Amino acid sequence: MNTKTVFDRLQSIDDEVQKLHNTIFALKTTDIQAYADKYEELSISAALRSERIACQLRNLVYTTTDTGKKDYLKQAAAVQGIKISFSNSVLSITMPGLLPKRKLRTNTAFLHEPLNLALQTYVTEHSIPLYKRCVVCFSQIYDQSLSLQRICDYDNLEFKQILDTIASYVLVDDTGLFCDSYHTTELGNYDHTVIFVMEPEIFPGWLKDRKESIKTISEIS
């Protein structure tokens, strides 16, 4: 890649950063109580723009340095806090908090590429069953120190592509014939998402234990 092309790409990224800066300034000056809808619109815009910036910089790294895509994505997964574990026949995947569904077509590589590599690495290094029948539980965990008004409806969150990525490694299929889904909202110390995959027979007991150990929204309603 020649110098001019690199410069042009950097200029494009710089322009995006300036727009992000302007959006963050608008967020800082918006009354979240009086203008909740406007605040939501601005915050989603800032988050999506940040994703685009991250993806643009990734591509620049791939094409202008000796760092390979695989090596970079391992670091990206660690920075994003993506963690995978398997215990008592339950697969657990911890990820950043999910964003609302995109109203416009945008690059979703920011989260899915590191998740894909993390899963690929984990199933290579560990013995994980291929679930023929399973329950997939999506647990949206919100920072309990912030307003509960920002909690989203489940059907407004970006679950499908996450499930597609997971299914390609540990599920026979993610159709209703083989996979049941469960969604729950919980409170914690920071925003994140945890996906649990387990056999249907395990789910009732697991859910009972989970509800006893985690603070749910109903406890403060």
Descriptive notes:
The chain has 221 residues and is of the alpha+beta class. The protein has helices at 3-28, 36-64, 69-80, 109-125, 160-170, 203-213, and strands at 83-87, 90-96, 134-143, 179-188, 192-198. It has a 5-stranded mixed β-sheet with strand order 1-2-5-3-4. Helix 4 packs parallel to helix 5 (160-170). It is flat and about 60 Å long.
The average pLDDT is 86
Helix-strand topology string: HHHEEHEHEEH
Main sheet?
A: 5 strands, mixed
Strand order of the largest sheet: 1-2-5-3-4
Report the structural category: alpha+beta
E-strand count: 5
Gap from first CA to last CA: 57 Å
Continuous helix count: 6
Strand content: 15-25%
Shape: flat
Low-confidence stretches: none
As a percent range, the share of helical residues equals 40-55%
Pfam families: DUF6100 (PF19595)
Protein name: DUF6100 family protein
Organism: Blautia acetigignens
Q: How do you describe this structure in short?
A:
It contains six helices and five strands.
Keywords:
221 residues, alpha+beta, 5-stranded mixed beta sheet, 6 helices, 48% helix
Which secondary structure elements does this structure contain, and how are they paired or packed?
Elements: H1 3-28, H2 36-64, H3 69-80, E1 83-87, E2 90-96, H4 109-125, E3 134-143, H5 160-170, E4 179-188, E5 192-198, H6 203-213
Parallel strand pairs: 3-4
Antiparallel strand pairs: 1-2, 2-5, 3-5
Helix pairs in contact: 1-2, 3-4, 4-5
